[in-house]
Batch of 2 targets.
Target 1
Amino acid sequence: MSAYKLILLPADPWCPPVNCEQLAGELQTIGLIGEPVALEDNVFFPTGDNFLQLISFLGCSPMIELDPPADRATLLAASAAGKFCHLFLNCTASLAFRADSQCPPPRCPNCRQPAPDWQTAIETWQRNTAQSDWICNNCGFTGQLTDLSFRKTAGFGRTFIEIRGIYPSEAVPAAALLGTLQHLTNEPWKTIYIKE
Ligand SMILES: [Zn+2]
């Protein structure tokens, strides 16, 4: 089962890891998230009191479900399918790659041509992170996989704020939220929209 997700991550893939407890504390202080709820072997955060001030939904009064199902038996399936807005914080020591299942080919940062072999290169890197080089077949540009331009459908990082239940481009983070995150890492953050 997959869910639509809005994911916030530092714009620079090489931003140092963020302490997840500190991140959760900051997000609770500004009211993006509530108290953690155990779910199988994971923990999710329901939306906080200021969620709708910190995440701006676009368009005319969308149907936004913020409350988790009261029925514990359906909670797991509802979470996996993104049936309601709730958050996960993913903080990893090593670099991770998150992408939409229908992610279009990224573009070369030099010639802007699509990289048709990108999935093979990512899989090779995921098996052996030392193999992170990428060479453009079109212009010969030599760099790293992290140089590829994925726009808003994929990203590399160590820290991901995952909001389930938001369709692509249905909502954007408000300036106040981006300001809090930038203050935390001394770097700007970006938004991607994926289904995974
Ligand atoms: Zn190129």
Note: The helical segments are 20-29, 51-54, 72-80, 118-127, 175-185.
Target 2
Amino acid sequence: MPSTPPLLLRCPVCGGPLYGSENPGASRGALVCGAGHSFDAARQGYYNLLVGKGTVFEADSAEMVASRFNFLDAGHYRPLAEAVAGTIARMVTPRGEFTVLDSGTGTGQYLRVVLDEVRRTTERCTAVALDISKFALRRAARINPEALCLVCDVWQPLPLADAAVDAVMVIFAPRNAAEFARVLRPRGRLVVVTPRAGHLAAVAESTGMLSIEDDKDTRLAGALAAHFVPDSAQDIDIRMMLTPAQIADLAFMGPAGHHLDRAALASGLGAGDAAAAVDAMFRITVFRLATDAS
Ligand SMILES: C[S@@+](CC[C@H](N)C(=O)[O-])C[C@H]1O[C@@H](n2cnc3c(N)ncnc32)[C@H](O)[C@@H]1O
Ligand SMILES: [Zn+2]
């Protein structure tokens, strides 16, 4: 059972504080608010906090999530995960309390690496993982049993209290700047991972992936500017040797997976184990709140 510190969660119906209830016999209790709104844990351990109609969206399918899990599990992006973990762990005070939100956590594999790193400095860490795809959260909940895994829409008010979080991490996922600013503590940090121009260029065309534009950085800072200012940035380049099956997973795990047929994609890439060089090019940008003068 993940701990649910009082005053961290907010009821998505009425906005009141949401608490973990003890539920004898069950591995995880429901989340309940003072007005009686109650959210049961799914068998896999996550909570569905989606209410109302919400945003029209196309959640990642089980097949896309499986492709992402397999690709990340093979360790191709491990240097990125370690760099994000190092960035966040440097924000932690030894033995201090620390709360991290992974927004658009997907399969939760980056969060796992982050939590393992943070735990080297403090055991008093609370993690919240949110995503709109229950297929993704099933996996995230399994590998991060200590985290609160919440199905919710990042474009709706987040089910978190004001100024409750030390770090928000967003890896290739949508960014709701106003809500991230609201839930961050005054000295908190937003950690954003984006692709740089040239990312996966060798396979973008043959797999129907969008190529990355040069001005992405300027656009990122512009989109967040009302609430955040860039603090620091680190570039991570990874040269990968990928088989056709791995390239198919790579293409299918991203937005292109919504409009590609995986079988057709895989057969178009050819069979066999001949590996091709593919360069992944990322930027980790750390933002502080515009109201933080430090
Ligand atoms: C490209 S994936 C990245 C996942 C993970 N951070 C990673 O890098 O492996 C984008 C994620 O954002 C989630 N997502 C998309 N729209 C969302 C929304 N409106 N609210 C919450 N999550 C959303 C998707 O379900 C998906 O898991
Ligand atoms: Zn309520």
Note: The chain has one domain: 9-289.
